């Protein structure tokens, strides 16, 4: 176990490509003291809106949020039931080229389509399968579907045309010293971005922006953290329901737990995704429950979304 956990550190340099490419010492997750790079999470392409509704005094105008926030705070997604285990035969992962990564990601997304479709259906919405694209952070223009990628992340989700698009930078996963840990993090990343697709499909991703209006920058960042932590939570709920297919048990589960407990924004320039402590909290509890009911970050106390 320890040998494998130490091997996870080897992908620290790889994680460094994500976000601001900064590395910091992190907390111990086993009795032996170790250090690793702290990855920053993978965001949706959602800028922080600037409040524009103002009264004549220059202060934000009061707004009646009773109707706007209710779909976000009390969405049917939270009572739709557990994500089901689905028949999903994963091929041998091959993350050594752009084409191989996309092929593997499409299989993962296909599994997630099967798992999330009935849950989204019970939320009075329809799930349209998202598309998957890989781009080079060095030549992003070569992949117009993922044009203008964020410079602070190696993956993002956005909606265009008739469906959502999951985009990730190939450099993030090339050349990993530990292919097992690399694969587990790749699965986690796809599940997180698919979590944004679930949010978009049921309307949360659209309506959450209403929570931004009239708030200070600090308040807006908190709303963003609620959204991002929820995406990770939803991704973990799927993985927990399908842990057998994804072989997330024993040593591999410990690697996953290590990763989700070391994804945080405290070392970045903007606190818009949540600390590694809270990322681990939401991810691990949802993995255990396999239920979106564990992911209502919008009603959680501020300390759980810091």
Task: Give the key terms.
306 residues, mainly alpha, three-stranded mixed β-sheet, 3 strands, 39% helix, 6% strand, globular, disordered N terminus
Strand-helix topology:
Layout: H1 2-9, H2 12-15, H3 70-73, H4 98-122, E1 131-135, E2 155-160, E3 163-169, H5 179-202, H6 204-207, H7 217-241, H8 250-260, H9 276-289
Parallel strand pairs: 1-3
Antiparallel strand pairs: 2-3
Could you walk me through the main structural features you see in this protein, from its secondary elements to its overall organization?
This protein is mainly alpha-helical. Helix content is 39%, strand content 6%. The protein is built from 9 helices and 3 strands. It has a 3-stranded mixed beta sheet. Helix 4 packs parallel to helix 5 (179-202), helix 5 crosses helix 7 and helix 5 (179-202) crosses helix 8 (250-260).
Summarize this entry quickly.
Helices cover 39% and strands 6% of the residues. It is mainly alpha-helical and 306 residues long.
Q: What's the mean pLDDT score?
A: 81
**Number of strand elements:** 3
Helix-strand topology string: HHHHEEEHHHHH
Overall form: globular
Cα(first) to Cα(last) distance is 31 Å
Measured on Cα atoms, how large is the radius of gyration? 19 Å
Report the β-strand fraction as a percent range: 5-15%
In this structure, how is the largest beta sheet organized?
3 strands, mixed
Can you tell me the residue ranges where pLDDT is under 50 for at least 5 consecutive residues?
Answer: 1-43, 46-68
Number of helices: 9
The amount of helix comes to 25-40%
Strand order of the largest sheet: 1-3-2
User: How many domains, as an integer?
Assistant: 1
Going by helix content, strand content and strand pairing, the class is mainly alpha
